[in-house]
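Appendix B, example 12.
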Amino acid sequence: MPTSGNPCCSFSMRAYRYVAPLHTPVIEAHEFVDLRTLCRRSLEGVQRVGGSAGALPPGVQTPPNVSPTFGTWAGSDASVDEIRLGPFVPPPDSFIPIITGPSAEDLTATIKESKSGRVLAQLPPMALTHWVAWRLPQTTEAVEIEIRDAGRGWGQWMAVSTTLLQQRGIRDANPC
């Protein structure tokens, strides 16, 4: 059975395809990248609405190249919130850091075209209990990222960074 080949993402791509509802664009396993292989694209963050600054449960660390972070955890797992990033045109080969609690039920993350609302990518209902970098779609249209936490149960929280990341040594970009 094929796997992603990346040590941070060794789940099966075949199994991964079956967790999303029919006709939902899903990300492939190669769309997650280990944060340690990336660096900041720029010092400017993406515009954000909602979420609380640094809202992570005790013990959850923010990697140094990922701050600032915004999350839905506001003192308890019962907190619910929505975070919107954008609109912005994602630079080529860029990533956004994301993490969830151990329970992904009632958590969603979707990338949509700003004008049309067309869904370009959606995270499947799976826990991402370590910071990962989610590859943004290649498009010339402005996009918005919607993070929704409607879960009030244990481990139901989500966080994202407004820092765009890139692979090290990419031409025509900040070489970091």
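The first strand starts at residue 32 and ends at 33. The radius of gyration is 15 Å.
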